Amino acid sequence: MLSRLGNVLYWICSGIAAAVAIGAVAFVYTETRSDAYVGAGLILGTAIVIWLIGRAILYVLANK
């Protein structure tokens, strides 16, 4: 049962991280200032942290 919960939570975190990453790409294309890449890097860093949290949940609950 915990294995299934781990898988579900991992995929939810992966989906959120993918949406945030797409938002970072959209941010770069819509922003006209030269520091847009710094902001996009921070947003991508947030997406990576979200994905890592999901991966940690999968590791703890599903032992994968």
Describe the structure.
- This protein is an all-alpha fold.
- It is 88% helix and 0% strand.
- It is built from two helices and no strands.
Classification by helices and strands:
mainly alpha
Instruction: Tally the helices.
Output: 2
Q: Classify the helix fraction into a percent range.
A: over 70%
Largest sheet: none
The radius of gyration is 15 Å
Q: Total strand count, please?
A: 0
- Run of helices and strands: HH
Query: Average pLDDT, to the nearest integer?
Result: 91
- Binned strand content: under 5%
User: Which stretches are low in confidence, meaning pLDDT under 50 for 5 or more residues running?
Assistant: none
Envelope shape:
elongated
Span of the ends, CA to CA: 14 Å
Number of domains: 1
Topology (SSEs and partners):
Blueprint: H1 2-30, H2 36-62
Main traits of this protein?
64 residues; mainly alpha
Concise synopsis of the structure shown:
This protein is mainly alpha-helical. Helix content is 88%, strand content 0%. The two termini are 14 Å apart.
